[in-house]
Design brief:
By secondary structure, the chain is of the alpha/beta class. The longest helix is centred in the last third of the chain and has 21 residues.
């Protein structure tokens, strides 16, 4: 599935030219604790407000921020102020055309622009960090995965819980058999915390003077500006975002996807409130069925958004708060016990108090190395030629595809059947634009 070119003649020409490799001087050459200029990445950041602000700061602690790009000067103001020496851009294509010496790029735009920036950066041989979800549609995810596989660069998705302590603890506990074979995993979230389940607005609005609306739309279909879309409220609109599932599931479902080697499901059955053509529903419950794999039993995974949550387990007394994580969490059900954690995998605990006290007093051996942060892990991969924990073609792409299959089921309102070996979709009439968008020339 080919992505239509964005209409910039020189930009397309530039993509044909390979980026130059850079040389790193080991730290020990100049003494312990000293970071040589050649041991510092030159980083450009695309989308530097909101979550992008965190990504800029996360990289700027140790690396050289040379360029910042955002279509809205007001949204970008904090990052511009914190890194005054960085060159400022509104169009990422201009940034990539002019900043030939950058080593790495972060992508923190709305979902609908992810694939465009990522594919362009990979084509130039740049290391790439992209916020979750990796892309807005499954077709774009597959294209990014294929491109990443052909490059020698380091890639990482911003599902930061994958690099955190809790997710690694969960895998170690499950592999140690503390809850036995896992049969069910339940998720819940208070998202959406933005307006959705609405129709397209018809009122006329003028874009703020600081915002380039054409660039904000990017490859998405043309529509007039309205504050119902930007800033932040874009998540619920199918042309721009992926709803509550796309926003949170790349965090929440990550530990189970990794620990249980879930891969593709065999079926996804959606239930939701009223469906709208252009926006995600107010709430939904999505049931994934995963087959037996590598010696583990079949697993049922249930996603709930719109502040729905699973029934109180019998192990949780009526006097205790339920759910324990009000904004979102996960409940694992095994043959020998149950495990609960926050939506990022944080603060895991066993529901049986005696089991929990025992594992806290005598935890299983650490099998999975701890890292400082998702940024530190990616930076190390860029410099050392290693692979990030959530690389595009290794972990992030397959995880994102699994998540986005749930949106296909919700949007069609029917069960989606999947070949778990290939990811081929059947059982629902899925419009082609749900799988791979036509890009607008702009």
């Amino acid at each position: 599935m080919a992505i239509n070119p964005i209409d910039r003649r020189e930009f397309v020409g530039d993509l044909a030219r390979a980026g130059l490799a850079f040389t790193i001087v080991p730290r020990h050459v100049l003494g312990h604790g000293f970071q040589a200029p050649s041991d510092t990445l030159n980083v450009a950041c695309v989308g530097v407000g909101g979550m992008g602000r965190n990504d800029v700061n996360g990289m700027g602690r140790t690396e050289n921020i040379v360029a910042l790009c955002d279509v809205d000067e007001r949204s970008a103001a904090d990052s511009f102020r914190n890194f005054p020496k960085a060159t400022r851009y509104k169009d990422f294509r201009e940034l990539l055309d002019k900043e030939r010496d950058i080593d790495a790029i972060t992508v923190s735009t709305p979902d609908h622009v992810h694939a465009s920036v990522v594919m362009a950066a990979l084509s130039l041989g740049k290391h790439v960090y992209c916020q979750k979800p990796l892309a807005r549609t499954i077709g774009e995810v597959r294209q990014v995965m294929a491109k990443a596989k052909t490059t020698k660069v380091a890639t990482q998705m911003g599902n930061q819980g994958h690099a955190a302590e809790g997710t690694r603890q969960i895998r170690e506990w499950v592999e140690a058999g503390l809850i036995g074979p896992v049969r069910e995993v339940h998720y819940w979230t208070d998202r959406p915390i933005w307006p959705q389940a609405i129709e397209r607005p018809t009122e006329m609005h003028t874009p703020p003077a600081t915002l380039d609306w054409n660039l904000w739309l990017g490859p998405a279909p043309e529509r007039p500006y309205h504050p119902a879309y930007a800033p932040f409220r874009w998540r619920g609109w199918w042309d721009f975002g992926t709803g509550a599932l796309g926003d949170i599931a790349c965090h929440a479902m990550d530990a189970a996807f990794w620990t249980l080697d879930l891969g593709f499901p065999t079926s996804i059955v959606p239930e939701s409130t009223k469906l709208y053509t252009e926006t995600a529903p107010a709430s939904s419950r999505i049931t994934y069925e995963f087959p037996e794999r590598n010696g583990r039993p079949a697993v049922t995974v249930v996603w709930r958004d719109g502040s729905m949550f699973p029934q109180r387990p019998p192990e949780v007394p009526q006097t205790a708060v339920w759910p324990a994580f009000a904004d979102g969490g996960q409940l694992w059900v095994g043959d020998k016990g149950k495990l609960i954690a926050g939506m990022y995998g944080q603060n895991p605990r066993l529901l049986d108090p005696e089991q929990d006290a025992a594992v806290k007093a005598n935890p299983p051996a650490e099998k999975y190395p701890r890292v400082e942060s998702v940024y530190a892990e990616w930076i190390a991969a860029c410099k050392n030629g290693t692979t990030g924990g959530s690389s595009f073609d290794g972990h992030a792409g397959p995880l994102t595809q699994m998540v986005l299959l749930g949106n296909l089921a919700v949007r069609t309102g029917r069960a989606v059947m999947v070949n778990p070996a290939t990811g081929e979709i059947s059982g629902a009439d899925v419009p082609s634009e749900f799988l791979m968008p036509e890009y607008r020339n702009y």
